[in-house]
């Protein structure tokens, strides 16, 4: 940071954003501790960060509903949202200062280049050949890097490490900032679009993704882990979480790279297969059988599991009707013994509806 002449208050804004973020995190942990108390979870099973939180006497003696209500207020009230907005404003102020400083460096470098070129024009009349060589050197070390950097800025790309030492240093510095910003953006995007436990796409992101896909022949698989509640009750939530991760990994590795898997509920998953027709039912049936065979004979210490899968096909990509058909097929499987796969048939139209 010392290499940059930041605007007044920029670094302080970053520190304030960091401190505010820590305070929000403490607030969120307190909220989670309230929820755990309200739900009656054993303190020993909680993460160390939550165990270290001491509730106020008032919160300890309050009722279950009061605890839940206060926990919700802590992370959904106006004060929480204002604090998040303030953090974003501080970060924006800090980044704007860095960008302004970088732009100033660009301008100063361009001015220095113009002065150098002016001096070279004087020497052209005296030492023409030498000046051609000098001009070539300048072109390679200064003009070319600048053009590359300008194009990189326009295309939102990292700088190539070319040119003189100063330009290489500038490129490295810019790239560090670029990577930091890209990492932050990627982290925010991942938190918004991916399930934190399993690492697959979450419900909201899947709906948005599915609706934007091309209108190709597709298959939608709705997947439930059979009797998952019994796994949680008998083996504990940690085992249940591990089981969810295992199923998510299995779905990712069992289907094509072009297929999309997501977790849309507690033990509910979905797979959208693009460019597949109804005459390929056997392929899907075999995949489901292989997955259930793998889950029924675990070697990792987890209890045996199985999946119920409802499948529906569409000639025009994803739509709400496709989901309803897959849901009816899933319901049929669960009503007829679970542990298997069923393809939608028009005879199932009187089965109960649900919506994603």
Automatic annotation (TrEMBL):
The keyword Cytoplasm does not apply. This is GGDEF domain-containing protein. Residues 216-346 form the GGDEF domain. CDD domains: GGDEF. The chain crosses the membrane at residues 122-143. Pfam families: GGDEF. Keywords: Membrane, Transmembrane, Transmembrane helix. One of its GO terms (cellular component) is plasma membrane. GO terms for biological process: cell adhesion involved in single-species biofilm formation; negative regulation of bacterial-type flagellum-dependent cell motility. It comes from Wansuia hejianensis. The keyword Membrane applies. GO terms for molecular function: diguanylate cyclase activity.
């Amino acid at each position: 940071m010392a290499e940059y002449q930041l605007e007044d208050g920029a670094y302080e804004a970053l520190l304030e954003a960091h401190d505010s973020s820590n305070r929000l995190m403490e607030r969120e942990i307190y909220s989670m501790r309230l929820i755990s108390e309200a739900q009656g979870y054993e303190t020993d099973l909680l993460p160390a960060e939550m165990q270290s939180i001491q509730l106020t006497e008032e919160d300890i003696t309050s009722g279950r509903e009061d605890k839940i209500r206060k926990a919700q207020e802590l992370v959904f009230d106006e004060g929480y949202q204002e604090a998040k907005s303030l953090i974003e404003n501080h970060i924006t102020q800090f980044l704007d200062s860095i960008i302004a400083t970088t732009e100033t460096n660009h301008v100063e470098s361009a001015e220095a280049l113009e002065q150098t070129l002016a001096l070279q024009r004087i020497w052209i009349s005296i030492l023409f050949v030498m000046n051609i060589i000098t001009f070539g050197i300048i072109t390679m070390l200064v003009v070319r890097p600048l053009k590359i950097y300008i194009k990189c800025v326009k295309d939102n790309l990292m700088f190539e490490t070319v040119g003189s030492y100063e330009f290489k240093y500038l490129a490295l510095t810019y790239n560090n900032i670029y990577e930091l910003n890209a990492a932050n953006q990627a982290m925010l995007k991942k938190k918004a679009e991916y399930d934190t436990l399993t690492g697959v796409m979450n419900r909201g992101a899947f709906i948005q993704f599915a609706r934007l896909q091309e209108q190709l022949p597709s298959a939608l698989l709705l997947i439930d882990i059979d009797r998952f509640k019994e796994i949680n009750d008998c083996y504990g939530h940690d085992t249940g979480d591990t089981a969810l991760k295992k199923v998510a990994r299995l779905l990712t590795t069992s289907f094509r790279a072009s297929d999309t898997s997501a977790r849309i509920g507690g033990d509910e998953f979905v797979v959208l297969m693009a460019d597949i027709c109804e005459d390929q039912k056997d392929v899907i049936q075999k995949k489901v059988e292989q997955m259930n065979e793998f889950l029924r004979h675990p070697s990792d210490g987890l209890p045996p599991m199985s999946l119920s899968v409802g499948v529906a096909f569409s000639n025009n990509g994803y739509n709400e009707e496709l989901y309803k058909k897959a849901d009816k097929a899933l319901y049929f499987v669960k009503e007829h013994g679970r542990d298997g796969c069923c393809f939608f048939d028009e005879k199932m139209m009187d089965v109960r509806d649900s919506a994603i």
